[in-house]
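Exercise: predict the fold of this chain.
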Amino acid sequence: NGGQVLAKTKRRLGIFDTTDPAHSQYSGCIPFYGSGGNFDLVGDLAFLACSGGLRIVNVSDPIFPDDVSIIGSDTFDVVVSGDVAYTATANGFVIVNISTPATPFQIGFLETEFASQTVFVSDGKAYLTDLGSHVMIIDVTNPKSPVPIQSLDISPSVVLDLFVSNNVIFIATASNGLLSIYDFSYVDAR
């Protein structure tokens, strides 16, 4: 982002100036509220998933990042697409309107049996993992009304992260560091 690199640790998001890659320098950091989850960066805004909720921070001045807003609680992952943030939270799958970053508001919600852990969004579908070793495929073409399409139980594995490409889900699990691959080309949004 304009010669900046963000690097996450458990408690902070470091900002590094990489304008001159041979002489990269630490510029500043953003401490998470509680422990940190993942983050997404859109323009000069960093969207941080943390135990304090979804935190929106302006990083246009990397030395003095500025809090814009925070919403919700116990957020573990976030993916931003347009004016919408899709979040995996302790309470389930929460969809937030971020068109005005200073005043974000929840527009959609889907309860999950276990705390949600990671989320990936592609082609009108969200892929959500939870602490109960499930991967849910959710139709999010209307973010105000997410609709579950399918759930996959990959017990006894614990999902660490996932990525989707051409309807193939790549799942990193904690079971012996395995990468599981599932083809969902037959799954259609309802």
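Check your answer against the key: The chain has a mean pLDDT of 82.
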